[in-house]
Amino acid sequence: MKTYKLEDGTKVFKYGNPIETEAVVAGKIKTKLENDLDIKFENGHCEISIKLSPKDAVYGLGGNLGGINKKGRLYESYCTDEPLHIEDRAKLYGAHNFFIISGKETIGYFIDFPTRIKYDAAYYNENYFNIEIYGQDFYIYIIEGKDEKEITSKFLKIIGRAYIPPKWAFGYFQSRWGYRNKDEVRKVYQNFRENGIPLEGIYLDLDYMDDFKDFTISEERFDDFKEFTAGLKEDGLYLVPIIDAGVKVEEGYSIYEEGIAGDHFCKDKEGKPYEGVVWPGKVHFPDFMKEETQTWFGLKYKVLTDCGIEGFWNDMNEPAIFYGGNALDEAIQYAEESKGKNLDVFSYFKLKDNFTNLANKDSYYQRFYHEIDGKRVSNDEVHNLYGYYMTKSANIGLSNLLKGKRFLLISRASSIGMHRYGGIWTGDNSSWWSHLEQNIKMLPSLNMCGFFYIGADTGGFGGNCNGELLTRWLQLSVFTPLLRNHSAIGCNNQEPYAFTKDVLINSRNLIKARYSLIPYIYSEYMKAVNHYTLMFKPLSFEFKENLAKEIEDQMLLGNELMIAPVCESNCSGRFVYFPEEMLEVSFLDEDMAISIKEKGIQYIEYGLEDLKFFIRKNSIFPYVKPSKNVKELNQENLKVLAYVDSEAVYELYDDDGESYEFTEGKSYSTKIKINKKIDDYEIIVDNDNPSIKNISFKIIDSNNNIEHKKISTY
Amino acid sequence: MKTYKLEDGTKVFKYGNPIETEAVVAGKIKTKLENDLDIKFENGHCEISIKLSPKDAVYGLGGNLGGINKKGRLYESYCTDEPLHIEDRAKLYGAHNFFIISGKETIGYFIDFPTRIKYDAAYYNENYFNIEIYGQDFYIYIIEGKDEKEITSKFLKIIGRAYIPPKWAFGYFQSRWGYRNKDEVRKVYQNFRENGIPLEGIYLDLDYMDDFKDFTISEERFDDFKEFTAGLKEDGLYLVPIIDAGVKVEEGYSIYEEGIAGDHFCKDKEGKPYEGVVWPGKVHFPDFMKEETQTWFGLKYKVLTDCGIEGFWNDMNEPAIFYGGNALDEAIQYAEESKGKNLDVFSYFKLKDNFTNLANKDSYYQRFYHEIDGKRVSNDEVHNLYGYYMTKSANIGLSNLLKGKRFLLISRASSIGMHRYGGIWTGDNSSWWSHLEQNIKMLPSLNMCGFFYIGADTGGFGGNCNGELLTRWLQLSVFTPLLRNHSAIGCNNQEPYAFTKDVLINSRNLIKARYSLIPYIYSEYMKAVNHYTLMFKPLSFEFKENLAKEIEDQMLLGNELMIAPVCESNCSGRFVYFPEEMLEVSFLDEDMAISIKEKGIQYIEYGLEDLKFFIRKNSIFPYVKPSKNVKELNQENLKVLAYVDSEAVYELYDDDGESYEFTEGKSYSTKIKINKKIDDYEIIVDNDNPSIKNISFKIIDSNNNIEHKKISTY
After folding, report:
1. Interface of B with A in 518-547 (CB under 8 A)
2. B124 touches chain A (CB under 8 A)
3. What is the CATH number of the domain that holds B56?
4. In this predicted model, what pLDDT tens digit does every residue of B92-144 receive, in sequence order?
5. Does B332 touch chain A (CB under 8 A)?
6. Does residue B11 sit within a domain?
7. Which of A184-198, B164-178, B340-354, B630-644 is predicted with the least confidence, judged by mean pLDDT?
C-alpha cells in the first residue's frame, strides 16, 4: 500500500498493482503519506466497512437505481445489459464508483478499479456501508471538503472536464427502434412539421444497418443515404445512427476482415478471436484497449460522417452477449437428455433456466481477453472499461474526421472517465411511472460522477406508453441536456402525435418550452462543465433542513430553478416542498403565469398543458421565443424573468455551439445584474454576445410588485 | 338479451346463455325491463365503451395492480400465477369484475362472466373506458345509488356475506417457504417467545408435504405431526398448512387413485385425465365444478383436521401450470433442431422464448375440460372459477369436519363469490417498497369486491427484505385482517428477529400494537361484513375535495381511523393530507403520544419505533393491553381514546370468535356514547359483553383539554 496526497488535499491509497483506468487525469501527486485505511483482504477480495450514523446519507454512485440518498439498497458495479429495471436490480449499464458519505463528517470516496464492486449501503444492516471490491489492486481516493458541493467539485476536477456536445444536441430528438426505412423516417419528420412540433433530429436504431453490421447502410431500406441525410439537414434535421460493439463474423464484410487482418479482436484462451452472439449472430469484440484498435475502429465512423452524419450512439458495449462459449450447446444438450423423461420440478427448472439465463453470464467475460501492454487480461478484470474505450475510440475517430466540429456522442455502458468522451442515456427503461421518478433521482447522481450530457428514454423504451405518461415525462425531460423520446419495436407508437389531440397539443407546448429554455440550459450546462459544478443538485446540497434531505422527487437546476415533476397518474398536481420562498412559474409557449410560494409544503396544481418550475429568490431566468430547431433560435430579443428582493446576478454563457474555440476563450457572456432600489430596479447589463440585441425584463419582488423594462444591449 | 330489475333497483342485463357463476346469490328479480345497453358484438367478443369526463374516477376491480382510482391502466381478468408484479402487469390472481364510474353520474357495474375480460381504463385514450368481454354469454349488473358507498353496499348485499374467520385468525402469523422440518418450525416459535414477540401461528408451505403431495405429511421431516400440532396448540400456537390444486400422478398415492376411481379429474379432449406439470411433476386437476368432486376433495382435509389443524391456504389454484400438453416436448424438439446451427437472432429468441414462456400458456387452459351439467366445458371458458370452486370445496369439507367451528381459509386465485368461502392473500409480491404502497391501494378495491379477510405477504414474498422495509410494512399490515409475514425459499430470513436489534424491538412494538388493536379490528371486520359496508375506504368515499380523490397512499379504516403508512426508504416521516381536523396518535405498547392536526397538508414525523394513525373528530377508539396471542387477550379493562367536540358514539362488536352462533344473534355489544358538556363529558355505556368489566377513558377535545375517566360496566 502506498499513500499520496494530491494538490487539492485528496488522499490516494494505492493497493497492489492496479490497472490504470484513465479515470483520474488531473491532480498532480504532491506528497507521500504514511496513513492507511481500515480495510480487510480476504480470498483475493477487499472488504471495507464504514460505520454510519442514523442521520448519515450516501450520495453519488451515478447511474444506479434507487434514491438520491443511496442508503437502504444494494448496488453492483459491473456494466450489464439489463432490460428490466425492477426495483431491486443492483447493476445496470454504468460503473460509477464515486460516493460521498454525508453526516457529521462529510467525505468523498472514489474507488478506481475496473471490475466488480458490490455495495451494501445500509441494506442488511442499517449501521454499516459495506463495500466488497473484487480484487486486491486498486486506488482509493479520499476527498475532503467543507460540504458535498466542494467535494464533488474537487472530484470533477481530477477526473477532467466533461464532454461538450454541439448546441444542436440540446434540441428535441425523436427515436424508435423500428423506423424501418427512409419513408418511415421521412414520415416522422413530416408529422412533426405538419403538427408544428419542433424537431432537431431523428435517432436511427439497428434498422438502418445491413443485417446488423456496423458501418453498413441497408441498400434496400436506406439507399442513397448521403443524399437522404443531406436533404434532411437542409431542412435542419440531424440523423443520429447507432453503432454496436460487436462486429459480425462474416467473410467478405470489410470491417470483419480488416479486424482479423489487423488483429483487432479480443481473443479466447486459445488465442482465436472470441465469438459471442448478439444481434448480427456471431460477432467478435474489438479490443478497444489497444490504441491501434481505438484508432482503427474510430475512423470507421467515416462511412457515416461521409454521409453528413455528426452524431452517434454507441450501444451494447457492456458488452452485451446473448450467449457465448458453449452455453447454448450445453443448454441444448441438457434439453436433449431431458427428452421424454418425467422431470422432477428441479430438473425442469434447471432445463428452463439454462435458456432463460443465457445472456451476459459472468463466465463469458472470464473467457475472453484483452491485450494490455502486451499482456493478456481477461475482460472480467477490466470489464467496466469496455464502454469507456469504445466511446474514447469513437471520440478520437470523430475528432479526426470532423476536424474541430463538435459531434453528438452517447454511450450506454460507461465508467468514470468516459464522461470526457461522450454523454450517456440511462439505458433501456420502461414506460413506467416509477421510471419517470427514477429518472429524476439519477440526474444529480450522474452529475456527481462527471456525466452531464444525460437523459432518459422519454416515455420509456420498453412497454406501451400512454399520452399522460409521455406528457408528464416531457415535463421533466425538457430540462435534461439530452432530450430523446425513444421506444422499442413491438411497443405502441410514442411520438407526440401518436395519441389524442390533447396529448399532441400538450407535448407541442412542452417541446416548444424546451426551445425557449435552451439558452438557459446550454448556459448552465457549459458553466457546470467548465467550472466543475453540478447542473442538477439535490435539495440537500443547498438547504440543511431535514426535509431537504428527504424530498427526492424535486431538485435544483443551476442556481436559479427548482423543478418538481409529477410522477403519478391521475393527478392534477403534487405536494411541493419549498425550502425557501420561490416564484412559481407556469410556462406556456413563452406566456406564463407566476405566483409567489412561501417556504413550506404546498399542494401545487400542475396540469398537463404547461411546464412548471420555480425560480429562487434573487434569481434571474433568461429565455427566448421557441423555434423549430436550434439553428433557428433567435436570441435577438432575450427575455428575462427575475425574482428580486435585493440583488440578483446572472451570467448567460454562449458560444458558437459547434466548434471548440470556446476553449481558447471564444465565448460570449451576458452579465445581468438587478438591484432593487426603493421604488425601482437598477439593471446593469454587460453583454458581448452580438446575437442578443434587446432584453425585456419582467421583475417581481416578494410583495408581488411587477416591473417591466426593456434594454438595448448591443 | 333480457333485462330485469332487482328489488334494490339494480338492472340485470342477460346476454346469450351465460354459465351460472354463483357470484350473485341474493336480490330476487322483481320486474322485467325493456332497456338495452350500448354494447357491440364482434367476432364472438363483446365491446363496451364508456365515455369518461376528465374528472371521472374508476373504483373497484379488486386485486389488480394500480391505483385506488383505476384510470390510466390496462387490466385483465384471467386468474394467473404471476410471480413478478411489475408496474405494467395487467393480470394477477383474481378476477374481480365490479367497478364504479364516479363523476357527475356515479354508477356501479358488475360483469358476471367466468373467463377473460380486458379493461382499458382510459389508458390508450384518456376519454374512454373500454371493455372487451371474451364471449357473448354473460350478465351485466348496473347498480345505481346516491354515492360510491351506497352502490358498494348494494353490490355487497347481492353477492352475499363475506367469509368469517375465527378470531385467532386476526393474530400475527409467521410464514416462510423453507421451514423444512419440525425443528425449524419449533425454533421459529421459540425465537418469538424468547424475544417476547406475540405469535398466533406459523404457516407451513410445501415443505411439510411428502413430495408435494396434497394431504400427505412428510414422515421424514414432520413425523408424529398430530402430536407436534397438539403440543404447539397447547402453547397457543396454530399451524396453517398449504394445499395445492394439482394432485400428483402417482400409482399408490391414495388421493390420485381415488380421484381416478371416482372420475374426479379434469379431462383432455380424448377424455383422459389432463396432465399438467406443477411442483410434484405431473398432476391432474380436480374438476371442482362437479359437486361430487367438491365433496370428495373437501373431505380430504380430514387428514390434517384430524391432526388438529384448523386453518389452510389453497395455493396454485389459478390453476398454475409450469407446462402442459406437449409444449415442453416441442421446445426440446426445436432445441434439437437448432443444435449446431448458426442461429440468426430471431431463431435464437424463439428457441429461448419456447422455454422462458412455458408457464401458464393460454393453450393449456383451452385443452382441458370440466363437466358442467353433464356437458364438457373447457377450462378457458370458466377459467376464473377454478379458485372459487376449490375454496368452496374446502369450505364445505371443513364446515363438515370441524362441525360449527370456524376455520382460517385463504386462497390465492379468486373470483367474486369466493369471498363467501374464504379470504385471500394478495399473492407472490416482492420485497419492494412499491409493493408496500401497492398493498395500501389494493385494500379498499378488494373490500369493494367482497373480500374482507385480506392481507399481503408482509415484508414481501420474493427478493430480500431488509429491516426498514419489514418495519414500514408492519406499520401497514397491523391494520389488515390477515397479518402474515411470508418469504420465499432462497431469500434472506424475514422474521422480526432476523435483522438488527433495533428492528427486533420495533417489530415487537408493532406486533404488540396489533394485539392491542384486535378488539377494534375484529369489531370493524364483523360490522363491515354483517352490514355490507367497507372496512377500508378511499378518502374520496368520505370527503369531496379534489385532494381526497388524488391521495391514494392514505385510507380510512372503519369510521374512526385514517392511516397513512410510510412507503419510502430513508424517511423520518411523510406528507399527510388531513381532509378534516384529526387527532394524531403515536401508539407504542399501549402508551401513546397524541396531538391535534388541523385540516390541510402537513409533514408528519413517523419513525420506525411506533405505530401512527389518526382519529377522526367525534370518534371513539377502543383498545386493550397486548397479549402473546388472541386467546390471552384480556378485555377486562378496556381502554378508550376519544376525540370529541360534540358527540361521539361507537359500538364495539364481539362474539365468541369461534362458532357461528353470532348468526343467531349470539354476539356482544358495547355501546359507548360520549357527549361533550360545557365543562365535562357525559359518558353512556351500554354493555352486554361479560368480558369487559371496566373502561378507562381518555377524552380530548379540539382545545386540547384532556379528561380521564373510568367506568365499571358489568
Report:
1. 546-547
2. yes
3. 2.60.40.1760
4. 999 999 999 999 899 999 999 999 999 999 999 999 999 999 999 999 999 99
5. yes
6. yes
7. B340-354
pLDDT of residue A697: 97
Tell me if B241 is assigned to some domain: no
Residue of B592, B623, B433, B621 whose CA lies nearest to A123: B433
- The residue written with cell numbers 383422459 in the block is B272
pLDDT(B217) > 80: yes
**What value, to the nearest 5°, has the Cα angle with vertex A477 and ends A472 and A478?**
100
Range of the domain at B119: 2-159
**Cβ count near A1 (within 10 Å):** 11
Sign of CA pseudo-dihedral A483, A489, A494, A498: positive
Considering only alpha carbons, which residue of chain A is nearest residue B56?
A: A570
- Mean pLDDT computed over B212-234: 97
Residues of A in contact with B342 (CB under 8 A): 281-282
Contact (CB<8Å) A86/B84: yes
CA distance B499 to chain A (A): 7
pLDDT of B260 above 70: yes
One domain, residues A693 and A561: yes
In the A/B pair of chains, how many CB contacts fall below 8 A? 167
- One domain, residues A658 and A707: yes
pLDDT for B557 beyond 70: yes
Of A72, A433, A464, the CB nearest to B569: A72
Distance between CA atoms of residues B458 and B453, nearest Å? 15
pLDDT band at residue B714, thresholds of 50, 70 and 90?
Answer: low
Q: Is A466 on the interface with B (CB under 8 A)?
A: yes
| Residue B192 counted as domain residue | no
Same domain membership, residue A458 and residue A591:
no
Average pLDDT value for chain B? 96
What is the model's pTM? 0.97
- In chain B, the percentage of residues whose pLDDT exceeds 70 is 100
pLDDT at B315: 98
Q: How far is B124 from chain A (nearest CA, A)?
A: 6
How many residues appear in chain A? 714
Instruction: Using CB atoms, pick whichever of A88, A342, A348 lies closest to residue B430.
Output: A88
Gap between the Cα atoms of A300 and A256, Å rounded: 12
Contact criterion met (CB < 8 Å) for A433 and B87: yes
* Residue A372: inside a domain: no
Confidence tier at B435 by pLDDT (50, 70, 90): very high
Question: What is the total count of domains within chain B?
Answer: 3
Max intra-chain CA distance, chain B: 92
Distance of CA A456 to the CA centre of its chain: 7
Residue A533 in this model has a pLDDT that exceeds 70: yes
Same structural domain, A632 and A499: no
- Report ipTM for this prediction: 0.96
**Residue B580, domain CATH:** 2.60.40.4040
pLDDT of A360 > 90? The answer is: yes
From the list B71, B86, B329, the residue facing A570 with the nearest CB is B71
Which residues make Cβ contacts (< 8 Å) with residue B428, sequence separation at least 6? B81, B82, B83, B85, B457, B461, B462, B488
**CB–CB contact A57 B570 (8 Å):** yes
For A81-100, what is each residue's pLDDT tens digit?
999 999 999 999 999 999 99
Q: Does A601 touch chain B (CB under 8 A)?
A: yes
Q: For the domain that residue A505 is a member of, what is the CATH number?
A: 3.20.20.80
Which helix (H) or strand (E) segment holds residue B339: the answer is none
Q: Are residues A549 and A510 in the same domain?
A: no
Choosing from A480, A502, A523, the residue where a domain stops is A523
**Dihedral sign of CA atoms B446, B450, B451, B453 in order:** positive
- Say if the Cβ atoms of B88 and A492 lie within 8 Å: no
- Whole-number Cα distances in Å, B489 to A279, A340, B175, B336: 36, 29, 11, 33
Which of A523, A547, A562 finishes a domain? Answer: A523
Q: How far is B8 from chain A (nearest CA, A)?
A: 32
The stretch A542-551 carries a mean pLDDT of 96
Residues A113, A144 share a domain: yes
